[in-house]
Structures are given as C-alpha cells and as structure tokens.
Design brief:
By secondary structure, the chain is of the alpha+beta class. It is built from 15 helices and 49 strands. Among the domains are: 101 residues, Sandwich (Immunoglobulin-like), CATH 2.60.40.10; 186 residues, Galactose-binding domain-like (Jelly Rolls, Sandwich); 104 residues, Sandwich (Jelly Rolls); 135 residues, Maltose phosphorylase, domain 3 (Sandwich), CATH 2.60.420.10.
C-alpha cells in the first residue's frame, strides 16, 4: 500500500484567507524503505478537477515547501488541490484526498468598506478605560444567499456576531502586530448564518492598539481611537451580489461591558442593557497596512476543572485551578450574595498560605461583575486574559463550589507535535511545565510572561525557547508573523533588532543608552534558522534574509573593530546565578557574550546565503565569520583554553558556537566540568548558558554530568521548581525560596518559559530524536539511556510523518523501537552492546540487510559552527559526531526493534 496523506496548504487542511500557498504532504506505506521518485500536483477551480489551472510534475523526493508557481491567482476565489506520487517509474499512488484554499482580498482597492469609529466615547474606571463600543447594521436579502464571506479588522480587538451567533471561536482578533506597518484582517465563511432579515453586531475593545502596554503605564501606543472595518460580500441565488460594508449608516451602541483591559481585567454590568447612543463615523486610516491573517488564531484550547476551593490563612475564599494557566474562569451565577462579584487572579500563595499577587506589579488582574443575583447563567470576560493558578473570590456565598467554575485556557492554536513520556514522574512533570509555559506565553506573540504588566515579545526569550518550541508545537506560521514585525521594527533603527517585538519600548528599557543587545537582537537570525531546520521551510529564510543581513551589518558597524562587538549596553547572561548579590547581570563579560553571538549569527547567515544560492554574500560573510572567530580567540582565549570570563556560560558558548580551535575543545570542556563540580555539580547559568549547557556536556562526552544537572532537585535546578509545586517554568531558579519567601516582587514570574529550553536536550538525548537534515528528511535516532529514568517514549510529528523512539531498561538489557516514516531515512546510533557482533547480526535481520554502517565519525547538519576548512560546496553548519563505541548505521523507512545486553560500565 502506498498513499499520499496529510496534504496541507500553509500547514492547514482547508484554509480561507491566504494569497501565497505553499504545499506539503506525507507519503505513507506499509512497506519498508519507501521513497518518492516523482510527484504530480494539480490545482483546479473545481472539486472534480475538470478546470485545472496548474498541472506540475517534478522528479524529487521532496514533499514539503512546494510553492505554487502556476497562473496568477484571482482574488476571493476557492481552489482545489490534489497530489499523487510515483514510488518508482512504474508504481504510482492514487490521488490524495483533495483540499481547498481560498484567496482573500488581494489589493487595497478592493475594499469598499470604510473605517468607522464611535461617535460617543465613554471613559470608565480609575484608570480611564475607554468603554468597548458596539457597531450594528441591519439588512435584508432579496434572495437566498449561496455564499457569504466576511472580511473584518479593527484597531483594537473585536468580537463579531451575525444573527445572534458568534462569527468564530477566535479571540483577540485581528491580533497583535505593529499597527503602524501591518493590520491583519480575517476572512470568515458566514453563508449558513444568513437569513432574509439580518443583524450584524461587532464589539470593539481597546486591546493592544490603545490599551495599557508595558510597565510604564502607557496607553494609546498606536492610536487614541478604536475603530472597525468590515466588508460582508454575499452571492445570492438570483446571481446578484450584495455588499454590506462599514460606513456612517452603522448604529453605535453600548452593551454590558464597561471596560476591558489585558493587564487590569474587565468590568461587566448586566444591568446596563444594550442601548443606542449614536452613529458610527467614517474616518481615514491607511488601507495599505491591511494584510491577511498571518499567524494562528488565539482560541480556547482546553477547558479544565478546578482542583478545590479553600479559605487561605487570611480568610479569603480562594479557587485553586491546580495548574498555572492563561485565560480566565467561567462561573455559574448560583451562589452570590448580592450580584456584585470580584475575581482576583494570582499565580502562587505566599509562605503563610495566603493569596498573593504582588508580583503582578501594576497589573490589577481583576474581573468584576454586577449581576442579577443567582440568575443561574454562566459568565466570563471577553477582552482580557490572566496568568494564574489561584483566584480570590469575593461576593460569593459559603455554599459556592469548585464545580461552579471552569478554567478557560487560551493560547494561539498550534498543533502539538511532540509526545514525550519517561519512567520518571518528576521528569514528566517538568515536561508538562514546559508545555504549559509555551501555551501560556504563545498568545498571538511569544511573550516573556502572561501575568504582570508586561506580556511583551522579548526577543531573547523567543530565540531561547525556539528550538524546544519547534519540537513541541507547529510554530512555523506563529513565528513567521512575529518575525515580520521584527523586520519592520528593526529597519526603523538601521538594522538593530529591538528588545521587544512589536517594539513598544523604543529604548525605554535601556534608558536610551542602547536600542538593542546581543542574544536579544540575534533572534533576527536564530529564529528563522531554527524554523527552517525544524520544518525544512526555505521560504522563511527568503522572507527574513534582508533582516538577517541587516542585523549582522549593524553589529559590524559598531565600534572601531568590525570583528568584535564591544560597544553598547549588554545584558549578557541575564539572571545568571554567578552574578553579584541582587544583580540581574551574570558574571560573563558582556562583550565576550556579544562577540560569541556575533560569530554564531554571522555563520548562520553565511549558511543561509549558501542555501539560497547567494554566493557573493556567502563568500563575504564566510570570511567575516572566520575573522570574528579569530578576533574572539585573540581577545578572549588565553593559553590552555583559559577564557577571560571564567564562568560556566563562557565555556558553554565557546563550545556550542564552535569558537575554539579544535585542539582546545577538549581542555575547554574539562574546564567547564571543573566549574560545574566547583558548584557541587550544579549549574549557575542564566539566559545565555542554560539553553546549551546540557547539550555541550553531552556532545563533549560528559552525558552523565548532564543527567546529574537534570536530576538535581535542590537550588538551583529544574526539579527544585518541580518539587516546590511548579506547574510552569519560573523566571528565576529560586522565584520562591525553600522557606516560601520570594526572590523579588518586582520581577518574578512563575510562568516564564526561557528555562524550559532544557526540553530540546531532553527530546534529543533522553527521547533520542534529532535532525540530520532540515525538516527531518533524515533523522538521528540516538537514545542515551540512564538508569534514573528506566524508560522513555518520544514521538515527533514531522513534515514527513511520525518519527518515534522508545526504549526500556530491564537490568542491563535494553529494548529499543524506532519508527522512520516513509520517504525519509534515519541515522541510528545504538548504545554500546556487550557483544557487538551479536548486535550487528540482529541489525542485519531486523533491517533485512539494508543497514549501512558507519565507523568512526559521520557528518551531520546541526546548530553549531566549527573552525574547519570550508569550500563553497560544503555547509558551514556541518559538525563531526563522534560515534565512539555506539553501533551506528543508516536505514530507510520502517519500524525497527532491537533487544540486547548493554556493555557494563
């Protein structure tokens, strides 16, 4: 059996609202060693493929990143796609199940609707919130609708209803972009919602456009007036087309929402019935900023039940959700005193067991409701979100029950790709914490934290978590949208990538001393590269190429030496444990870290130029990379691999980024181990060293020490957080101390995903899955078992199919099962056997003699750069993997199981 499945357009099965389609699919088979010989793709105007507009064939095994290159697509038109594959010149699959994509408005001239804003503006609350307005339009249809599309956007965030039904389950549309450059609009199929008489209602709140943003307490970041743009296009049964667009005929109303703000919460008064207050007013706003929705929508991805209700030490009634989450609680109004309710959100309890919210700083995080007492209805907010585990309840009676509440978990809707489970429950809890941290901080942009008066797209946090996140979730479109804002904001400041994206700070963070810093700005290069590697998507490299280049050129212009970055304000190894008392800055020298990242990004950019065939840039930036490495060694490396910064992070960066001479790497690794042992086998790294320290130890032959760091459960360690009740990752290793006190109230998040970057090492080392070629066209399956875990299962949904690795220890016997999807290959490295010849005999039987063995070393594509000789035909990101005593071989697709005795240490 050979079959084409999982046909996707822009990572979705049937999609409305795109103008640049890119296709991918899986090849599935119950046979082994299957590879695509050629593909055949068709795009048609009809589901029966009678009117084909693109009929394309190509001899290649590629099934991802296939760009549409047919005739110009028409605006607001549906197209159908199908694919078939040749396995050999004689064997051809059936056509895949077709999918469709539908283009949206392509040109600003196609908008006949006008931007409208409210005639009446009300201000409420002690922080001068603008009350959300409701824009309404009633209309009749002379004939039955056979197709209807709503194209809609807002300056603010909107909820839309048609004839009393929600248009979609999306939240916070049109989404957070830099509104000065790009305002997204959405495209919805509303055909089945229409009647002969109709009412469309759209509520618009302040959102990111004009609500509070940043810890400075500023509003009106992008404008002081919220607005709406909507165009409803209806094809009727009689052949006519009716267009309902926003204009001055739309009625303005207010409804029960008094105010709603992301940081401070929402006020809802059911006694304020919907009423007319004026007419909407047309106003001018640039239509050229409008772009189709680029990233996934925020949705209610999970609904959870609370763990309990209890009285804290101060007598407060507190709801415990059992999980630090992002969203809000929905409640049933059946146990209230007088209908005046207040729900206050917080992440943790203090050392006395009291509800605690001081770490939220200026964010009130309170939802208030004035309701008809005990009306039995369910209520929830609309235009806010909170990061919390605990909710302080006021206005409820003693009879209130946990069953009266639900936890509404919000996140950008992304497919979960990784399933990772081990025989150690504490490691499983750590994995759960990593996943929940990513869910909560992926709310339309990659944020630093979801609870306090911040929730911004810090660039370092994003690039630090990106490799782990790309394994856990399908983040291609999510990061693509965010990187477009990075590019726009970067070009404002001559190539310097900002601290946060969208950039609302404009230098505020560094008091105007600098508009960027190393590792933060390097997100401009690292994030596109990680997305390319994870999904094999060259398109993101093409789109971000100018941004990547501008970042390197910006650093190159800084200071007097173009091969060092020794200027500007550097945050360095932020929150490193080797810092001075009460300091945020780690002990690693700022210019050391900056130059290390400068080299790393330059090497990645040179490789990007090679991949895209830009050989002139490849040659120029390859030479630049070599010179930066030489300058790094000349300024920061002494004799015997001693570094000017004698810190764990300094050695980690030098080794991971391949900045040392080959003959110095072994001694540098020994020095890193010495530093770890000086800390009683603990890390003291911050933002820059933590993501890589276990990777480096494993790659340098100290895998047992990497496992020790993972299994430490005292401060500082990952399991310290787990053992102290964490359900997400903490900002600080000791956000809450052993005695229950807090590291700080000023900067102390309990959902801050940077240290969740350990996930990348866990999946590769414990789970045993790594990439050998971008998009997992070739996979490395190389589990490194440890008796402290006993077993592990790791399953990864790749662009080509499902890869999995399972292993289980039984004394000194190991059982390993590997699954390699069709149309891919795997490089398998099995832990050292007691009897190598016996294992090889088993491999020959299991693989039917198709195993191609490797002795010594093998070349593989990785994230790191090495100081070796290159030619223009050789990848700058190749590294040598030392197979050592492992039994290594390459094999095609199939399911392979091995059972043998391990060599005793």
């Amino acid at each position: 059996m050979y079959k084409v499945t999982h046909l996707r357009c822009n990572d979705e099965a049937d999609v409305i609202g795109i103008n640049h389609p890119i296709f991918s699919w899986w090849l599935e088979s119950d046979s082994r060693f299957v590879e695509q010989f050629r593909y055949h793709i068709q795009v048609a105007m009809d589901a029966d493929f009678q009117e084909i507009i693109w009929d394309y064939q190509r001899h290649t095994s590629e099934t991802t990143g296939i760009e549409y290159t047919g005739p110009q697509l028409e605006s607001r038109t549906r197209y159908y796609v199908r694919v078939q594959s040749w396995i050999t010149a004689e064997i051809l699959t059936e056509w895949s199940e077709p999918i469709f994509f539908e283009t949206t408005i392509m040109n600003s001239s196609e908008w006949t609707a006008k931007w409208i804003k409210p005639e009446v503006v009300e201000v409420h609350g002690n922080k001068n919130y603008r009350r959300p307005f409701l824009a309404e339009k009633q209309f009749k249809l002379p004939a039955k609708a056979i197709q209807a599309r709503l194209y809609i956007s807002a300056l603010g965030v909107y909820n839309a209803e048609l004839n009393g039904k929600k248009i979609s389950e999306d939240y916070f549309r049109p989404g957070f972009t830099d509104y000065n450059y790009r305002v997204q609009f959405q495209s919805y199929d509303v055909t089945d919602m229409l009647d002969s008489e109709n009412i469309i209602k759209v509520t618009v709140a302040e959102g990111w456009f004009s609500g509070y943003l940043g810890w400075e307490g500023r509003k009106n970041t992008y404008g002081s007036s919220n607005a709406l743009l909507a165009q409803l296009e209806i094809k009727l049964e009689d052949g006519s087309v009716k267009v309902i667009g926003t204009d001055g005929t739309w009625e303005q109303k207010f409804r029960e929402i008094m105010y709603s703000d992301f940081y401070n919460g929402e006020a809802y008064d059911s006694r304020q019935k919907e009423y007319h207050c004026g007419q909407m007013k047309e106003f001018s706003y640039p239509m050229k900023t409008l772009v189709p929705q680029e990233g996934p929508s925020v949705k209610n991805i999970i609904t959870i039940k609370p763990l309990s209700i209890f009285k804290d030490a101060s007598g407060n009634c507190v709801l415990d959700m059992g999980q630090n989450m992002v969203g809000w609680v929905r409640f049933k109004n059946i146990h209230t005193v007088d209908g005046d309710l207040k729900l206050s959100y917080g992440e943790v309890l203090d050392k006395d067991g009291n509800f605690y919210s001081e770490n939220l700083r200026k964010a009130d995080a309170i939802d208030t409701f004035r309701l008809e007492a005990n009306d039995g209805k369910e209520y929830e907010p609309h235009f806010t979100f909170h990061g919390f585990r605990y909710v302080k309840l006021e206005g409820f009676t003693e009879e209130v029950q946990a069953e009266d509440f639900q936890g509404i978990v919000l996140s950008s809707s992304m497919e979960q790709l990784c399933e990772f489970h081990t025989g150690n429950e504490r490691i499983n809890q750590l994995q759960s914490n990593i996943l929940w941290g990513q869910r909560g901080n992926f709310v339309d942009i990659p944020t630093d934290c979801p609870q306090r008066d911040e929730r911004l797209g810090w660039t370092a946090d994003a690039q630090i978590i990106c490799p782990t996140a790309a394994f856990d979730f399908q983040i291609n479109r999510f990061f693509r949208k965010w990187l477009r804002d990075l590019k726009d904001n970067q070009m404002e400041q001559e190539g310097a990538a900002p601290y946060v994206v969208p950039d609302i700070l404009k230098g505020v963070f560094s008091d105007g001393l600098s508009n960027t810093t190393a590792a933060w700005g390097d997100a401009a290069v690292i994030c596109p590269w990680v997305i390319y590697e994870a999904y094999g998507d060259k398109d993101i490299l093409k789109e971000q190429y100018d941004s990547m280049k501008a970042w390197i050129d910006y650093i190159r212009r800084e200071g007097d030496n173009e091969y060092l970055w020794d200027t500007g304000a550097q945050l360095g190894d932020w929150l490193g444990m080797d810092s001075k008392e009460d300091s945020f800055y780690g002990a690693t020298e700022g210019c050391y870290a900056a130059t290390a990242y400068y080299a790393y990004s330059t090497g990645l950019f040179a490789e990007t130029a090679r991949i895209l065939g830009k050989m002139s840039d490849y040659k120029e930036y390859s030479d630049l990379y070599e010179n930066i490495c030489e300058a790094f060694r000349g300024n920061f490396v002494k004799q015997d691999a001693e570094l000017t910064s004698y810190t764990q992070t300094a050695y980690v960066l030098a080794l991971k980024f391949g900045l040392l001479k080959k003959e110095d790497e072994k001694r540098a690794a020994e020095r890193l181990v010495e530093l770890v042992k000086k800390k009683d086998n603990h890390l003291d790294t911050g933002f820059l060293g933590t993501p890589y320290i276990c990777h480096v130890l494993t790659e340098q032959g100290y895998n047992d020490l990497a496992y020790t760091l993972l299994f430490n459960n005292d401060f500082p360690s990952w399991l310290y957080q787990v053992d102290h009740g964490a359900t997400t990752m903490w900002e600080h290793w000791d956000s809450q101390k052993v005695d229950g006190s807090f590291w700080s109230t000023e900067m102390n998040s309990f959902n801050h995903y940077a240290y969740g970057s350990i996930g990348s090492w866990m999946y590769r080392t414990i789970g045993g899955i790594d990439m050998k070629e971008p998009g997992y066209k070739k996979t490395i399956i190389a589990p490194k078992p440890d008796e402290r875990i006993q077993s592990a299962e790791c399953t990864l949904t790749t662009m080509h199919g499902i890869v999995s690795c399972e292993w289980k220890l039984d004394g000194n016997r190991i059982h390993i099962k590997a699954v390699v999807p069709a149309n891919t290959k795997a490089f398998i490295m099995l832990p050292e056997p007691a009897d190598e010849q016996s294992l090889k005999k088993q491999i020959e039987e299991v693989t039917e003699g198709h195993a191609v063995y490797t002795e010594g070393k093998v070349q593989t594509v990785k994230h790191v750069l090495y100081d070796v000789e290159y030619t223009e035909s050789k990848s700058r990101t190749e590294k040598e993997i030392n197979v050592g005593n492992e039994t290594a071989f390459e094999i095609g697709s199939g399911v392979f199981e091995f059972d043998y005795i391990l060599k005793e240490n």
